[in-house]
Amino acid sequence: MWSPALLLVLSAIILPASTAIVKEGSTCIVTPISDTPAAVALRSIGAVPPTERDLNPEDNPYSVSKPGMPGSLGHYPRPEPGSSSFQNQPISRPRSQPLTLKDNPLEPRQNRPDDTPQILSAFSQCGKDGTIIFREGTYHIRQVMDTTDLRNVSIEIHGTFVWSDDNLSYWRQNSFGVTYAGRQTAWRIGGRDIAMRGFGKALFDGNGQTWIDLARGQGNLNGRPISLTVWHGTNVLIDGITWRMAQFWHTFIAYSQNVTMTNLDMVTFSTNGQSSVNTDGTNTWNSRDITISNWTVKCGDDCIGVKGNSTNVHVSNVVCHESGAMTIGSIGSNSGQPDYVENVVFENITAVHSSNAAWIKTYPGTGHVRNITFRNIQFEDVNQPIYVTSCICQPNNTNNNTPLGTDSYQNCDSSRLPISDVRWENITGTSRYNVAVGIHCSASAPCDGFHFSNIDIKPKNGGTAKVLCSNIKNQASSGLQCTGPCPGSHPQQLSGNV
Ligand SMILES: *[C@@H]1O[C@H](CO)[C@@H](O)[C@H](O)[C@H]1NC(C)=O
Ligand SMILES: *[C@@H]1O[C@H](CO)[C@@H](O)[C@H](O)[C@H]1NC(C)=O
Ligand SMILES: *[C@@H]1O[C@H](CO)[C@@H](O)[C@H](O)[C@H]1NC(C)=O
Ligand SMILES: *[C@@H]1O[C@H](CO)[C@@H](O)[C@H](O)[C@H]1NC(C)=O
Ligand SMILES: *[C@@H]1O[C@H](CO)[C@@H](O)[C@H](O)[C@H]1NC(C)=O
Ligand SMILES: *[C@@H]1O[C@H](CO)[C@@H](O)[C@H](O)[C@H]1NC(C)=O
Ligand SMILES: *[C@@H]1O[C@H](CO)[C@@H](O)[C@H](O)[C@H]1NC(C)=O
Ligand SMILES: *[C@@H]1O[C@H](CO)[C@@H](O)[C@H](O)[C@H]1NC(C)=O
Ligand SMILES: *[C@@H]1O[C@H](CO)[C@@H](O)[C@H](O)[C@H]1NC(C)=O
């Protein structure tokens, strides 16, 4: 009889895992470790029950939350009381193959394959003037990845990347910082002239339900990693990738220039009733010349967020479900640092059952928001379709028992962060309640250069919609027929007619 230990040693010697990379010229071709003969042999060895998942926040150095950090107040859409339509919706996965090792309860943890070393090896061998091809199959990622020194590389992904969820402490302790609000990421990609293509076949599975359960509605749980961050990248293309159940935000674009992200499909939505806040589709920050096109996103938080120091951002042909849809902000959270957002176009956007459609949210901070266009936005069942607030996340009542987003706000008139030259053109659809527009600009820095045309928003249950506005310069010639003021205390999320 072969002993399992001997088999393990033999298989490692005879069939080393490194056979999974084949290098031909400047091209690295990678096969999942678990598909190599060595791995198949390893898998047949042991039958040890899995260790308990490391899900106890008490063991965790990061268990203290930081209320008031950007986005920590959820703004996910709320179901109608008594409606079950937006929870427990099945998450469709594009493939039938098993996505995680949880599917094999007898697999011992220590024998679980880890493709991270060979993925990193492929990046170091072929990440400059080269091509990296990930063949079909499932790649298990059990370690953080920092691939930020790339140059003239084509990354072609035909398989599934699954991020492990049996040691969340590992990810929380080791994910890379991305500066913004103390957030972290599991994978940073950067350098120059990078194309990452998934051909509609690449699937990134972050095991997000485990993270949603751990966070228990506290979206900004420290160390909860962004799936993929473009970090100090120039001339970057990301195309044709599907995400299912990302750990936190699906993507983030920071300190980057000329980034194009097209044909992406993202679904991260809790299946068990815990809210899936902070699962944004993407956020841009300290970046310029960004093109986002042809996305479908269902996420429970902002779909596309344009954050501080973003310039020249063009977003088109995006369909968002259960989200905050198109968002400028949140910005201005750090009173010592100005945030500038300029030259942003959102066009040909659809928002379904979402909290907002065209939204600008700032803290009472410094900087400016200038030259923004929302054009051809159609939506159905959106809580507050057009919403502008100068005092996001400034609740008077920080009691955690207050339902998310229903607080009233303070310092709304002290913000020195002007919002100007914003156009809303051809904005049509249904609001959940009787409010089409809520705009509260700061009295200290009134909004200027607001223009509205072809706004047609009807409450889904009939009647006419209110248009609430405060502190808009030249309001009479803005094209908007305001029906009344919008108090600073106007809630971020409505829960009924006002
Ligand atoms: C980019 O890399 C390819 C090899 O993948 C090489 O043929 C080409 O010359 C490189 N381009 C530049 C500008 O160096
Ligand atoms: C989880 O990761 C932490 C941090 O890297 C490590 O110290 C610990 O041994 C790991 N636990 C298990 C059960 O793998
Ligand atoms: C921007 O990046 C794309 C690749 O995504 C590249 O084709 C294009 O030349 C770059 N534009 C500039 C101005 O460098
Ligand atoms: C967007 O999708 C449409 C329809 O599938 C396709 O024709 C178009 O080429 C895509 N645009 C980009 C930039 O990939
Ligand atoms: C935004 O850019 C300004 C000016 O370049 C800089 O002072 C500020 O620190 C930046 N803000 C952030 C949050 O990085
Ligand atoms: C406003 O933004 C648009 C789109 O990015 C750009 O084409 C235009 O030049 C900008 N206008 C000004 C005055 O900067
Ligand atoms: C947006 O839709 C309009 C009207 O259908 C069309 O003319 C325009 O080309 C579209 N823009 C983009 C960037 O797809
Ligand atoms: C208005 O937007 C809708 C989509 O939301 C689009 O179908 C229509 O062509 C747009 N109208 C004009 C005049 O661009
Ligand atoms: C918030 O609290 C301040 C001081 O406690 C009070 O003056 C203000 O009216 C409150 N604002 C709202 C919107 O309730």
TrEMBL record:
Gene3D superfamilies for this protein = Single-stranded right-handed beta-helix, Pectin lyase-like
GO molecular function terms attached to this record = galacturan 1,4-alpha-galacturonidase activity; polygalacturonase activity
Which residue ranges have biased composition labelled Basic and acidic residues? Answer: 104-115
Instruction: Identify the stretch annotated as signal peptide in this record.
Output: 1-20
Question: Where does it live in the cell?
Answer: Secreted
InterPro entries for the chain: Glyco_hydro_28, PbH1, Pectin_lyas_fold, Pectin_lyase_fold/virulence
At the top level of its lineage, which domain of life is listed? Eukaryota
Task: Spell out the reaction equation it catalyses.
Answer: [(1->4)-alpha-D-galacturonosyl](n) + H2O = alpha-D-galacturonate + [(1->4)-alpha-D-galacturonosyl](n-1)
* SMART domains found in the cross-reference section: PbH1
Region (Disordered) residue spans: 49-119
UniProt KW keywords: Carbohydrate metabolism, Cell wall biogenesis/degradation, Disulfide bond, Glycoprotein, Glycosidase, Hydrolase, Polysaccharide degradation, Repeat, Secreted, Signal
SUPFAM superfamilies with a match to the protein in the record: Pectin lyase-like
- Any Gene Ontology CC annotation: extracellular region
Task: Give its E.C. classification number.
Answer: 3.2.1.67
Major localisation: secreted
Q: Which BP terms does GO give this entry?
A: cell wall organization; pectin catabolic process
Q: Where is the composition biased (Polar residues)?
A: 82-99
| Entry-linked PANTHER family | EXO-POLYGALACTURONASE, PUTATIVE-RELATED, PTHR31736
Give the function comment from the record.
Answer: Specific in hydrolyzing the terminal glycosidic bond of polygalacturonic acid and oligogalacturonates.
Tell me which family the UniProt entry assigns to this protein.
Belongs to the glycosyl hydrolase 28 family.
What is the protein name for this chain?
galacturonan 1,4-alpha-galacturonidase
Q: Which organism is it from?
A: Chaetomidium leptoderma
